[in-house]
Amino acid sequence: MLRPWPVSLGDRIDASRDVPLYMQIIQALIRDIERGRLASGTYLPSSRELARVLGVNRKTVVLAYEDLIAQGWLESAGTRGTRVAAALPDPVNRHRSDAEITMSSAVVDYRFAPPPERPIAVSSGPGLKIDEGAPDGRLFPAELLARAYRAAAHRGAQGNGFQYRDPRGSPALREAVATMLKSQRGLPVTAENICITRGSQNGIFLAAQVLVERGDSVVVEELTYEPAVAAFRALGANIVPVGLDEGGIDIEAVEHACRRNAVRAVFVTPHHQFPTTVSMRPERRLRLLDLARRFGFAIIEDDYDHEFHFESQPLLPLASYGPAHVLYVGSLSKLLLPALRIGYVAAPPQVIDAIAHRVSITDGMGNTLTEDAAADLIGSGELRRHGRKVLQVYAKRRESFAAEIDRLFGDLVEYRMPGGGLAFWLRFRTDLDRMEARAAAMGLRLASSRSFMTTGDAPRGLRIGFASLNAYEARTALAALRQAAG
Amino acid sequence: MLRPWPVSLGDRIDASRDVPLYMQIIQALIRDIERGRLASGTYLPSSRELARVLGVNRKTVVLAYEDLIAQGWLESAGTRGTRVAAALPDPVNRHRSDAEITMSSAVVDYRFAPPPERPIAVSSGPGLKIDEGAPDGRLFPAELLARAYRAAAHRGAQGNGFQYRDPRGSPALREAVATMLKSQRGLPVTAENICITRGSQNGIFLAAQVLVERGDSVVVEELTYEPAVAAFRALGANIVPVGLDEGGIDIEAVEHACRRNAVRAVFVTPHHQFPTTVSMRPERRLRLLDLARRFGFAIIEDDYDHEFHFESQPLLPLASYGPAHVLYVGSLSKLLLPALRIGYVAAPPQVIDAIAHRVSITDGMGNTLTEDAAADLIGSGELRRHGRKVLQVYAKRRESFAAEIDRLFGDLVEYRMPGGGLAFWLRFRTDLDRMEARAAAMGLRLASSRSFMTTGDAPRGLRIGFASLNAYEARTALAALRQAAG
Questions:
Q1: What CATH number should be reported for the domain whose range is A140-380?
Q2: A239 beta partners
Q3: Of the candidates B30, B337, B367, which has its C-beta nearest A162's C-beta?
Q4: Going by fewer Cβ within 10 Å, which terminus of chain B is more open, N or C?
Q5: In this predicted complex, what is the ipTM?
């Protein structure tokens, strides 16, 4: 009837920690059992004794003992007191160190796939961030958003709408998105063609899941959107880069790729090519659709910032005239807010069903409260009004951004005024490696020129978002970039 | 200078459709070019003539022509009028049918992976649904939620917080979750150990992504959570089912599996086994950790409804005493609302970084507005208060549900009162195939008994959620189930 416990228990139980004393006692006891410091059958001090040693209320110890008995860690041995359950196994090769092991100090002894050296997202943190073409979230009226959420919350509570629901998304939002795509983008769709996703990246990821099997080839432009390529690669795709120019993707190269590989998908951003901002010309669009028909591949059309086109109305997507060959991916991130993570895929119903199955595996469904709030904002016309308002703001920012680039960089930089989208594509007549290293050293965070390149000899440049920056911020950002250029 | 267009244009342009006339003209014209009905170089009617034929304002036609010229579909040939751009390719093998092709009528001519015959989510739709243990969303005060969102919206707008941010989630929520796990569940964590996910399914999916490579083995119980198994399978895992009993997973079988396979992960739900509701006994917990150490596998601990334990305090998770061996997955879906899709993974920082990389590929990040609102609800103590309130409600519902089962089914059913969680596991002394077919025919939607089974000879049963049903609904649901039993 030795009572060796508490082993240094006093050091570990501390009323000033933000963990309740009761929980601290349970924790300490289970950990000591787990580490082999308390063998099965060992008798514990009485609750009175332990309470005295620890300077805590006896009730606290009684509660902890009772719970541990209920759970099977301890057992009551009548008048002889409380002991560690006899059924517990003897320690085999447990950690016996006295140090408390935390999730941060623990040595991970299982295998896991480490992240790449250069993360595919621009790091968050201190310093000045230049994005790749994000909207200015400050322009969206917070009160409008709050009201849409309030209405959706009350409606959801009344209609028992907060449950697990359709993986394809909120019926109201699927309907609203279908109407929007039909009337504003010429897509021949109804709600049954829509699956709501968590932003367009999630749409690309889900589309890739149903299209790509290990070893399949996916054609991308030599300069493209890295998270999409990462999604294809994660599925074991063979990435086939092809050239592009100011008219968009090199169609001959796509045909060549199809003759040599089992091409299952071609990923494009025809409206505003990512990162170069050019629009794919009509003849290439028609020829790409012809190739899709001939070689039976799917076109993943990522139309990530459709609304923002400055010199004409937005171009109709490939999906509007090639509905049998295109998985159309879009998002409300630019028009509404990135933070709400609402995107969508438009495709034939049988493909939508396949995508919905992948949703069930990936995350079950979306945030239906947010989806219902967004449906309200579309249905009431508020989102469209907001879009028209910010288009004006962004058009002005684009002009003054260009003027500032000219003023600061002169011949050091080469660019075309983007016809649409929220970013410039800048090519530098300077050592870009050195410039990017300097920018990093200065705390200037921006997407690496390497992040856009799928081949080592693709033309290098930087994609600089202008829309999220007010006049002062734009000057600051460009001045910092100019400084990095040396 | 023939002007063959408009081909049946009058039939397709219709002011009563909810697509603007301007958009309808653009659509019709591009589609006719795409289908080869309008060859390159073809002259179009003058805007005046077309406006007259269609009975629309001439301005509408002018705008459509101007946009199509700007986009390169048409070109102006001076006084000779407007023609289809000469650079457009001749049609190769385009669809020439007169029928309008929509995304629903289109024949998909690319390969995609079809969904399984039995979807892994219980279908949404009409009829009575019995869930697998969802909370009652109606018990959460909508106004509390609305207020949390309003505060988060205004704060976000002020702090420019609506942008693309850290894939690991909102700093406020990571901090709040870490504090909650530390003080209420004994997990030795800080915010750097937390990655916010879209519900626990997304947490399992992300954990699987970093742990499992094609051909690796994953051990699961013979009765388990199908969406998790589907996630492992999607990654090419070899699923190794092992037995379980009222004490939890069969440890000898796990050891046996480890001797024969490269086991990378063991998926368990130790607190309330899914679907059988039993808690894993302390001796099995210790032995499972011992095996993890010996064979170097990771334990994916899914603690999906931690708060709801009725006969003692909730049990400390494996992760609280085995932090080096466990990826801990949890969610606010049961405590708060499924609709908000907030879950989390707790793991060592280097594993969290690897998971964050997968977040970048999967969906970029979570809904930070929702995350900030949830952080408020945790920080203010509202969520905990709500949890205590509904625990009382659910405890009563559990009692009366059991009484109703006894009354209606008597000897037809066998079950143990669940010590925790929001569902009963029912085994029937009747032909379950026939019963489930009848339930389906009656419009009663519930998870198939097959959905839990990873081997054909696993014990069959139904998991019946009781928490989301008020007294009337519970009686209705059980009466329907009784009717299905024949």
A1: 3.40.640.10
A2: A218
A3: B337
A4: N
A5: 0.95
